[in-house]
């Protein structure tokens, strides 16, 4: 008897139904269509029906944004620790281990050097799949180091933010101080004449939005990205303030002058290369 056959009560064979493998199809939150996961991934994690931009893992972001095989990762060995012995539902040390096993990453930031259409750049990415892309000591340290390297090498700096968690509460003040640390490095980079392009993806919130994500020379955002400090629900629960429709979306921020341009993911590499070329000539 095969694995797809079972016996009925009379002793005969009845072929069982084959189930659909889990994760083969995904639901688009914007158009509500059920779409084939592989097709979404080949389209740079963009819905083929409505162009909704799904969250994009750092490894795929690197392949999409940089020239093929041009990325040189830096500081990959840095790993988080549990300096406060923090425990909520589970100990922070255990949470870290679970997140590392699930994501295949040591922490929420991937940084290094690469090329965009032949132009050398320093790149940092915060990835939502590791603790919602929250900023702990390792994320802050990695970003600070690449800003300092970009200053020394006199290269354009690109940081792609995808942090829904802001500063990581499990590290307390050690997490919050990363906001100031990265900001100080960016100030020195700016004084040296460096070009910092900040790319805002869904979501970019909390301490990340309150520090390095909105300190760029040029701010590009993906369509429909949520960008802000406190979310709408938090604002309502604290100050009972009704917010305008579309508040904190990239479209709302563009209309009110907080960002420079909304760029579809398929056009992002070309757009960044053109900005670098233009700024180098001016």
User: In angstroms, what is the radius of gyration?
Assistant: 22 Å
Largest sheet: 7 strands, mixed
Quaternary organisation: single chain
Structural class: alpha/beta
Total domain units:
2
Residues in β-strands, percent: 15-25%
**What overall geometry do the principal axes of the alpha carbons give?**
globular
CATH homologous superfamily (4th level) name of the largest domain: 2-enoyl-CoA Hydratase, Chain A, domain 1
Name of the CATH first level of the largest domain: Alpha Beta
- Tell me roughly what share of residues is in helical segments: 25-40%
Family: Belongs to the AccD/PCCB family.
Subunit structure: Acetyl-CoA carboxylase is a heterohexamer composed of biotin carboxyl carrier protein (AccB), biotin carboxylase (AccC) and two subunits each of ACCase subunit alpha (AccA) and ACCase subunit beta (AccD).
EC number: 2.1.3.15
Cofactor: Zn(2+)
